[in-house]
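hey m, so remember when u said the tokens were messed up on ur end? i reran from scratch. heres the input so u can diff it against urs
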Amino acid sequence: MSISSVCLDNDRDINAAVNLKQQGIVKLKAEGLSVSADGGCVSLANASCSP
């Protein structure tokens, strides 16, 4: 396996993780939940997220 194919695999994995996170956020918002900018807090839309 060449170095370039390893880098492409890593890029593909990172891209997949970003896409999964975004889809999860979309689905949570569709259910009326709020999500913090870093994804660390999920709560009801009318509740606040505390660090």
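this time it looks ok to me. The longest strand covers residues 33-35. if urs says something different then somethings off w ur setup not the seq
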